[in-house]
């Protein structure tokens, strides 16, 4: 009897471990209001992106699309209990790197990487990765503050 219960329990655990847990519905509206840009909800994650179409970057002498060169800001926001976590990446001109880092840090967000994705592009594009946590309003305000140090299009 005891052996049967253990086998049943193990079988149930095996089934549950392979059953995807449905993401809880998340309201991205507050993030969208603070950021002033569209924020899409996908499987419990609030996602925003801003493409830098205003930049004139050439890669290896060729004009490529901003999508191909990943000239965008990407940020994902996830609610974890009463806290929101944000992780993202800015594509920046060299002159924007320090002002963006300053604003991210002043907002309580952490810079996790500064690097390039390409060689032989002109002008040079640098990528700044960041993360942080707080209320929806806090993390969204931190990202928006950093965006304002750039020429990213904001409404």
Short description:
This protein has helices spanning 2-17, 29-35, 94-106, 136-147, and strands spanning 40-42, 45-51, 58-59, 62-63, 72-80, 83-93, 110-115, 121-122, 125-134. It has one domain.
Overview of the molecule:
- With 155 residues, the protein is of the alpha+beta class.
- The protein has one domain.
- Helices cover 31% and strands 34% of the residues.
- It contains 4 helices and 9 strands, in the order H-H-E-E-E-E-E-E-H-E-E-E-H.
- The strands form 2 sheets. It has a 6-stranded antiparallel beta sheet. The chain has a 3-stranded antiparallel beta sheet with strand order 4-3-8, with no helix packed on it.
- Helix 2 (29-35) runs parallel beside helix 4 and helix 3 (94-106) packs antiparallel against helix 4 (136-147).
- The longest helix has 16 residues, at 2-17.
What can be said about the biggest beta sheet?
A: 6 strands, antiparallel
- Helical percentage: 25-40%
DSSP summary, beta strand count: 9
Beta-strand fraction estimate:
25-35%
Helix-strand pattern: HHEEEEEEHEEEH
The tally of structural domains comes to 1
Number of helices: 4
Uncertain segments of ≥5 residues (pLDDT<50)?
A: 9-23
Strand order in the sheet with the most strands: 1-2-5-6-9-7
Give the N-to-C terminal Cα separation.
67 Å
What is the radius of gyration? 20 Å
- Structural class computed from helices and strand pairing: alpha+beta
Please tell me what the overall shape is.
globular
Q: Determine the mean pLDDT.
A: 88
What is the assembly state of the chains in this entry? Answer: single chain
Keywords: Signal
Protein name: DUF1259 domain-containing protein
Signal peptide: 1-22
Organism: Marinithermofilum abyssi
């Amino acid at each position: 009897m005891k052996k049967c219960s253990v086998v049943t329990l193990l079988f149930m655990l095996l089934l549950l471990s392979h059953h995807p847990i449905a993401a809880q519905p998340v309201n991205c509206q507050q993030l969208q209001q603070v950021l002033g840009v569209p924020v899409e909800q996908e499987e419990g994650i609030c996602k925003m992106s801003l493409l830098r179409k205003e930049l004139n970057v050439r890669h290896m002498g060729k004009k490529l699309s901003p999508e191909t060169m990943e000239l965008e800001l990407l940020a994902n926001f996830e609610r974890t209990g009463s806290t929101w976590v944000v992780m993202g990446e800015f594509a920046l001109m060299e002159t924007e790197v320090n002002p963006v880092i300053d604003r991210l840090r002043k907002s309580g967000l952490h810079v996790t990487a500064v690097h390039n994705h390409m060689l032989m592009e002109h002008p040079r594009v640098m990528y700044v990765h960041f993360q942080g946590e707080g209320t929806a309003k806090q993390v969204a305000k931190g990202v928006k503050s950093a965006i304002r140090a750039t020429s990213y299009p904001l409404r």
